[in-house]
Specification:
- It is a single chain.
- The protein is built from four helices and five strands.
- The longest helix is centred in the N-terminal third of the chain and has 18 residues, at 16-33.
- The protein is globular.
- Mean pLDDT is 75; it is low at 110-116, 118-148 and 150-161.
- By secondary structure, the protein is an alpha/beta fold.
- The protein has a three-stranded parallel β-sheet with strand order 1-2-3, with helices on one face. A two-stranded antiparallel sheet has the order 4-5.
- Helix 1 runs parallel beside helix 2 (61-75) and helix 2 runs parallel beside helix 3 (94-105).
């Protein structure tokens, strides 16, 4: 397997602190079981719906990034084949992009600068960011699986390069 993406949202957590703790735990668990030769991406919520399973005031980009960083620092701080996956870019606000850049991109210490960015958006609106579309080149569908995410179940298309 070339890449694993963990969808760490739709958790039903009512507070940012609880959600961040959940993401930290999921990040640690994923790091423990993912081979070093496999890219591991943790999903960040870039959407703002209030519905069963997702509280927009709790599942925020800053809370998710804090959780990812905490899980990474606890479990495998030197890992280089690691990043975040932004879901879903067309619903993102300027604040989401600013938090991503501030907390994930610029928040990296010099020790982690060799990590490749998942992408740097060319603009912050629209569903077809050029860099996002390029990232799907050469990826083929493997299967559709049903994965639990918090209290909900979602079908995800698993893709490998």
């Amino acid at each position: 397997m070339d890449q694993i993406a963990v969808m760490s949202y739709d958790t039903m957590q009512p507070l940012q602190s609880l959600y961040g703790g959940y993401v930290a735990q999921q990040t640690s668990l994923a790091l423990e079981v993912t081979p070093m030769s496999t890219d591991l991406l943790m999903g960040l919520p870039f959407y703002h719906e209030n519905r069963f399973g997702h509280w927009a005031h709790a599942e925020t980009v800053p809370a998710a990034v804090r959780g990812v960083r905490l899980g990474l620092s606890r479990t495998d701080a030197g890992r280089t084949r690691f990043g975040v996956a932004l879901y879903v870019d067309f619903a993102a606000t300027e604040d989401d992009w600013a938090a991503y850049r501030r907390d994930w991109v610029r928040g990296s210490t010099a020790r982690y600068e060799e990590r490749l960015l998942i992408f740097e958006p060319s603009h912050t609106s629209g569903s077809y960011l050029r860099s996002t579309a390029r990232s799907f080149n050469g990826i083929r569908a493997l299967s559709v699986i049903r994965m639990p995410s918090g209290q909900t179940s979602v079908q995800h298309l698993v893709m490998l390069q």
